[in-house]
Amino acid sequence: MSPKDAVLRAALERSAALVKGDREALERLLHPNFTYINAGGARMNLEEYLQTYVSLGDMRWEQQELDQVQIEFYGDTAVLTARLHDRATHQGRVFEAYFQTTQVYVHTPQGWRCVAAQTTQAPQE
Fold this sequence. Notes:
Nuclear Transport Factor 2, Chain: A, 6-stranded mixed β-sheet, globular
């Protein structure tokens, strides 16, 4: 498998784990030093991310699709940019929106792990 395919696979597995609410899979796919900045500007470490998006149950993804994916490599680091299509329920309210994401992956002995990500609202098309 090419490095580009391996990073894309890791990104798709991360999205699938989020939709399934699979905390264990996310812990394998996200780096222990993971940092996330959501579309509202909140910054979270790994535990805060898992609590907010998996454990608390306030947020439940029905779908997260990536398109317009681009991946660039810098040694053992990969930067993935993509457009996200999210459909989820937040505190009982259904929402569907498009976002832009930047995800940074590092190659570790366990494979490609996401160490940082940021999501912003996508421009309306």
